[in-house]
Structure formats: C-alpha cells, structure tokens
Design a protein that fits this description.
Helix content: under 10%
Distance between the termini: 78 Å
Shape: elongated
Order of helices and strands: EEEHEE
Structural class: little secondary structure
Strand content: 5-15%
Number of helices: 1
Radius of gyration: 26 Å
Largest sheet: 3 strands, antiparallel
Length: 177
C-alpha cells in the first residue's frame, strides 16, 4: 500500500507509529443500534491485529444496518440518530467494502485539529441485513491538551503587619534601611 508521506509503507512500517489506538478512551466507546451491548469496544485494536476476524465484532440489530459509533478521547455528550440527521458532518466519505483492512480514507487535516472525540455514522451498508465492522483504525498525531494554570492570588490594598512575620521573628536576620 502506498503511503502519503515520502516512502512506501511496505519498506517502512509506519502504520503503528501513527496509530491513535492507544489514545482512545476504550471503556467509554459506545455504539447505538449494536446487537450485542458493548461489542463496539472489540473493534478498536492495534494495526497488527486488524485482520484478526476470529474475535468479537460490531454488528447492527437484525434488519437495521444503521450504526453510530462514538469514540472519545476525552468526555463529551453522545450523539443520537436524530442528531446525526440534523448536524452537518465535518467530513463524509463514500466507503468501499474492505475485507483486507488496507483502505484508508484521507481527512481534511485542518478540520480535525484538536479533536477530543469522533462520532461515526454508518447510515447503510452494501445490501446486507446487518452491518458488521471488525476493525476501525485511526491514524494521526496525538497531542496533549494544554490548559492554563489556575492561580489563586490575593492582593492586599493595605497589608496588616500582624499577618506578616519579619525574618527576625522566624529566626532569620533583618535590616531596616
């Protein structure tokens, strides 16, 4: 598979290097319309395990192929099916069947900077009664959220000398000039 950076990934394995798998908050991953509660957690695995279809997979309820998968990196409110219909997507892809786990869908980089979570909506499949997903892999560069430090500072308009010890009172020396 040709890579989008300056080499062929067949000669240089960069797939694990850019995987966001270890940054997903897997215990809080959720899905709407999954036939087995919690099975969505099984589709997030390392790049090397992506072709292992012997384990659990995510499947929609019988007769209803629609799925919504919520992938948190930090906490956020979940989206339901009515939200998915009303909210304009950040990006859409036309998916192809991918049984070998080799297809990648490019994102518009500028729209995915500082992402705290993703919600993926699969409104239909390729004609089957249910939608089955064995692997979802995310690639990119993880960054830590930097928050401003909160400081609690008290300013005194007129200091009260009894609240402030002089160095001589605490065992040090003092000089008054």
């Amino acid at each position: 598979m040709a890579c989008l950076h300056n080499h062929s990934c067949e000669e240089h394995d960069c797939s694990s290097e850019w995987s966001l798998y270890k940054h997903i908050d897997t215990p809080h991953v959720s899905a709407l319309n999954e036939s087995v509660a919690g099975s969505v957690k099984s589709i997030f695995k390392s790049w090397e395990q992506r072709l292992d279809n012997s384990s659990e997979f995510l499947e929609s309820n019988d007769g209803d192929p629609e799925l919504i998968v919520f992938i948190p990196f930090i906490n956020r409110d979940v989206i339901d099916f009515s939200d998915a219909q009303e909210i304009a997507p950040v990006q859409e892809w036309e998916l192809a069947e991918n049984t070998r786990g080799e297809l990648e869908y490019q994102t518009k980089y500028s729209r995915f900077q500082g992402v705290a979570n993703l919600t993926l909506h699969f409104p239909e499949n390729f004609g089957a009664e249910t939608t089955q997903i064995y692997y979802i892999g995310l690639r990119g560069e993880a960054t830590q959220i930097k928050r401003d430090t909160v400081a609690n500072i008290v300013y005194e308009a007129m200091p009260n000398p009894s609240e402030h010890k002089l160095p001589a009172e605490t065992g040090g020396t003092s000089q008054v000039l």
